[in-house]
Amino acid sequence: MPHVERGMAVGLFGGSFNPPHEGHALVAETALRRLALDQLWWMVTPGNPLKDNHNLAPLGERIAASERLAENPRIKVTAFEKALGQSYTARTLEFVRARNPGIRFVWIMGADNLKSFHRWQDWRRIVNTFPIAVIDRPGSTLAYLSSRMARTFSHARIDEDDAATLAFRPAPAWTFIHGRRSPLSSTALRSAAPRA
Asked: Which of 91, 3, 79 is nearest to 42 (CA)?
């Protein structure tokens, strides 16, 4: 895990990044700025339990490509989940919290993941572990109104004007951040790639 100092506000941005693209970089930069974070951990996962990992590029390639995109020195590309031997977010977040006392973490996710978030293993535990920032993505702007997570935890939603305070709030707490969006998606990029 990247080095942190007690009292820091750190965003956790996980995904398979298969491949990473400018849309991911935009989410990371938006989160750093709007949430007033000291760091953002760009966490490249070994795989995704909810997706077909058949076309998953090797972890090393996805890390290298992510590092090329993450130009801001406050963005730390890491793949520490590989050493944990699992890829369930709820367990990863519990591990991160236990290893980093005194750090204020925020889980970062694109709005395109909000629609299916209730299918993630122990999704309620994720919401109750760290505050969550949902960053707008094309076609997903209304997910904060219609998703099961948004409805279940509507009482914990804070206004995006208060996003800079999110890291200092106890979970459950979440916000939806509107802003510039990239039309890029990993699925579309994989589909457009020439077949070998």
From this structure: 79
First to last CA, the chain: 35
Q: What is the total residue count of the chain?
A: 196
Would you say the pTM of this structure is higher than 0.90? no
pLDDT tens, position by position, 8-51: 999 999 999 999 999 999 999 999 999 999 999 999 998 766 56
pLDDT bucket at 108, cuts 50 / 70 / 90? very high
Which is nearest to 41 in space by CA: 19, 83, 64, 9?
A: 9
Question: For the chain, give me the number of helices (H) and strands (E)?
Answer: 8, 6
Distance, in Å, from the CA atom of 71 to the CA atom of 134, rounded to the nearest integer, reads 22
Question: Comparing C-alpha atoms, which of 37, 45, 51, 52 is closest to residue 7?
Answer: 37
Structural domains in the chain plus CATH codes: 9-187 (3.40.50.620)
Within 27-103, strands assigned E span 39-44, 75-78
